[in-house]
Amino acid sequence: MARPRKSENTKEALLETGTAMLASQGYHGTGIKQVLDAVGVPKGSFYNYFPSKEAFVASIIHYYGEQIDAELAQTKINLVQAPGLIQLWCSFQNRIQYKVKAGQSCACLLGAMSAEVAQASPLCRKAIESVEHRWLENLRSILHLAQDQGDLRSDIPANSLATLCYSVWQGSILQYQVSGDPNDLLRQLRTFFSTLVTQQGAQTLSSIETYRQDIHFEK
């Protein structure tokens, strides 16, 4: 396989650094110069990669979406034999664990960008919608599996549950940003799942600790 060109490495570094800064500082708190200085790229070179800050942020959103896709895919591979309810829990737990271990904020870039730029930037809004759609489809698939296995109530369609689950996640992120305690996210999610599980699902949910140590993501 051919080695990536330097320009490809630089673009990747800009996206990675931009993702971290946008998640922690927001759109208006992150300047292009901050990102360039952190990566060590001259200001004039930025436009070799992105035509504008708006295009840069849209690319970051897609980049962030690719990370989510990869994490969800890895969760399914690692837990292919586990109940769907456990896969669902771990898909969120692992994101929190990874961020904490990396010393990063658990804030969700999609939520932050939805609040700041979705209405003002059609380009960014389209990127957010694309990533959200894929995330919701993944959630729907896992939720449907958990319903089929008898762990989740089946009177609410999986599509509706996926949207609700995503909304609870984003709302919990807002509370986390105030408290700064990642455990708040886990507590909120655990409470939410507890309202949806069947009697069988309650037993499955109690076995979470069995799977907690099995999941590791490589950066």
TrEMBL record:
Domain HTH tetR-type residues, every copy: 8-68
Coiled-coil residue spans: none
Signal peptide: none
DNA-binding region of this protein: 31-50
One Pfam entry name: TetR_C_13
Keywords, in A-Z order: DNA-binding, Transcription, Transcription regulation
UniProt xrefs under SUPFAM superfamilies: Homeodomain-like (SSF46689), Tetracyclin repressor-like, C-terminal domain (SSF48498)
PANTHER family hit by this protein: HTH-TYPE TRANSCRIPTIONAL REPRESSOR NEMR, TRANSCRIPTIONAL REGULATORY PROTEIN
Protein name, UniProt field: TetR/AcrR family transcriptional regulator
Species this protein is from: Microbulbifer epialgicus
